[in-house]
Design goal:
Blueprint lengths: L14 H5 L6 H17 L4 E3 L3 E4 L2 E4 L5 E4 L2 E5 L4 E5 L6 H14 L3 E2 L3 E4 L7 H18 L3
Antiparallel strand pairs: 1-2, 2-5, 3-4, 5-6, 6-8, 7-8
Helix pairs in contact: 2-4, 3-4
Length: 147
């Protein structure tokens, strides 16, 4: 089976130009803080994925169904209502999920989706815990999908 045609693919769009469009205005500074945090944690440079995700690194996946694709290993989007962080690594093992859950309990105000972390404002979370969550996910993704 061939790779599925995904809407979310790496682009050559300028990350900083995208950030300057983020609203409300405080989201622009939060996006820059997140880029600094992801750079420090992943050692990767940011790249636009689709029209609104700032991603770091990439990995190829293949589902049991045969469907396959490429996605950023980690990333975020500075949306109007919330910062959306894309963290897939904790689903690799039960132990990783337990550690992720423990850290979420210490993080501060947030909501969760299947592989998404939603934050209203960086002021409402513990940045050291957020950094650990990103680091854990990055390491787990690297274990599961070696480069």
């Amino acid at each position: 089976m061939t790779k599925a045609e995904l809407k979310t693919k790496p682009t050559n769009a300028d990350v900083e130009a995208f950030i300057t469009t983020a609203q409300p205005e405080r989201r622009q500074e939060e996006a820059r803080q997140m880029i600094s945090l992801f750079r420090r944690t992943t050692g990767e440079e940011p790249k636009m994925w689709g029209p609104s995700i700032i991603g770091f690194g990439s990995y190829n996946y293949k589902y049991d169904s045969g469907r396959e694709g490429t996605m950023c290993r980690a990333g975020f989007s500075p949306r109007k209502a919330k910062l959306n962080l894309y963290l897939m690594g904790a689903y690799c093992t039960p132990d990783a999920q337990a550690e992720q859950d423990r850290l979420f309990g210490l993080l501060g105000k947030h909501k969760l989706g299947k592989s998404c972390l939603y934050i209203n404002s960086l002021e409402q979370v513990d940045m050291a815990i957020l950094e650990q969550l990103i680091r854990n996910n990055w390491e787990l993704m690297n274990e599961r999908y070696p480069t």
